[in-house]
Amino acid sequence: MNSTTEATQPTPAAPYTSPIPDVQSNGIGPLNPANRLALVDVLRGVAILGVLVAYTMWNLGTPPANTWTVAERVVDTTLGILVDAKFVTMFAFLFGAGAAQQWRRIEARGKSPVVFHARRMVFLLIAGLAHAVLLRNGDILAPYAILGLVLIVARRWPTRRIVAAALALAILPYVAALALEATHWKLGTRPTAMPDTSWRHYLADNLEWLRYWYLTSPLLSWPRILAIMLVGLLADRSRFLTRIAADRRLALRWLGVALPVAVVSRAAVTLVAGWWSARHAPLARGILLEQTYWISAWSLAATYIAAFALVCQRPSWPTRLAWLRAVGRMAFTNYLLQAAIVVPVCLALGLFDAVTPTRGVLLAVGVAAIQIPFSAWWLGRFRYGPVEWLWRRATYGAGV
Predict the structure, then answer these.
(1) Is 32 within a domain?
(2) In this structure, what DSSP letter does residue 110 have?
(3) Exposed, middle or buried, 325 (CB in 10 Å: 0-12/13-18/19+)?
(4) What is the DSSP string of 210-249?
(5) What are the CA-CA distances from residue 301 to residues 105, 118, 151, 237 (Å)?
(6) Which of 124, 130, 341, 393 could bridge 145 with an S-S bond, Cβ 3.0-4.6 Å?
């Protein structure tokens, strides 16, 4: 089967007009929950639940599409438009912005952020590799850690250089694809399905897929993720999230640009796929379709950010979304917990390679029904989520 980021009960109605403090009063350490920008936690909560839907819908193995009902086709198409690739994009953006914010706070105390960042990424890498080997071969934590170690190189770059690097990285997968086509060289062969009747078979299959992803992804997908992280870095420099959380007109402008681009680019994917036969210039057709698809994914992710900024500016909505903020504040814990619930259930019920769209939605709803109350309950008793606490200790030391 193919499977591809804190606490008391969330405080109600945190003001959206207050900027995020650059440092804590008690020195270098994690941001105090009381000083967190509520919009960021809401977006992380949205992203982690979106990643959950993508995981259960498309990464557990599906029966042939010709066996689906009409309702299942509608569910698959609808969620493909609204979910697929949008929330991984949002996560990469928030990852870049969050890393840059951390660097700012540490530098404001007269320290270099390099060591703290390296500790943070090493912990993320270890957790991600364990998660990938034991549970979800499509893990995003380890790739994010590797790319995060590269990201800090751009810490002092001027804006123009960062923009140029992001554009180059967005183009790199196509250059790599053209080079591979010209040389007739395959980076790896997709694994064949193995029976998933036991943990032993599951782990063997997982390792095969993991090998395939790490042979192909560094050239064909990781550059695009790093490009979005660089955009997040630039967003932090301009305090974009703080500004859009407080400025209704800015949020409306972003919504007015991003939503039409998302709609038009998605329509273009459908039209080009129908108009351009796969028999004519298949490589050029594939590149055009893929880039148009990614433009649609990026712009729809931006649409979600602007829409939630508008929602959260309404006086009562930060309180109403406290449950979503709790999920976002425990995004690392919840991401790991998703596969820790789904994999045993699928093994026990024999669901791998048999997850129809409706089953995928039901699985996602079931996991969310556990994670949402668990997050609120935990943060009502502790300052950070369990994995978040370990991550912060690894980054800042025993004083956390």
Answers:
(1) no
(2) T
(3) buried
(4) HHHHHHHHHHHTHHHHHHHHHHHHHHHHTTHHHHHHH-HH
(5) 27, 28, 21, 20
(6) 124
Domain that holds residue 339: 42-396
Q: 357-379 and 331-349 helices cross at what angle (nearest 10)?
A: 140
- pLDDT reported for residue 343: 94
Q: CA 66 to CA 304: how far, in whole Å?
A: 32
- Residue 18 domain-assigned? no
DSSP type of residue 367: H
Unique residue bearing structure tokens 């550059």: 223
* DSSP letter string, 3-50: -----PSPPTT--SSSPPPSSBTTBSSSPPGGGS-HHHHHHHHHHHHH
| The pLDDT of residue 5 | 34
- How confident is the model at residue 195, as a pLDDT? 53
For the chain, how many structural domains are there in total? 1
User: Which residues of the chain register pLDDT less than 50?
Assistant: 1-26
At residue 82, φ and ψ (nearest 5 deg) are -90, -25
Q: Which amino acid is at 354?
A: A
Closest CA to 118 of 163, 155, 149: 149
Instruction: Specify if 34 maps to a domain.
Output: no
Helix axes 322-329, 38-58, angle to 10 degrees: 70
- Alpha-carbon distance of 357 to 63, in angstroms, equals 10
Nearest to 119 by CA among 40, 31, 29: 29
27 domain-assigned:
no
Give residues with Cβ within 8 angstroms of 366, minimum separation 6: 341
CB 304 within 8 Å of CB 46: yes
Is residue 391 within 8 A of residue 124, CB to CB? The reply is yes
SS3 297: helix
pLDDT at 400: 59
Side-chain-side CA neighbours of 344 within 13 Å: the count stands at 5
The rounded distance, in Å, linking the Cα atoms of 40 and 6 is: 13
Cα-Cα-Cα-Cα dihedral of 168, 174, 178, 183, to 10°? 80
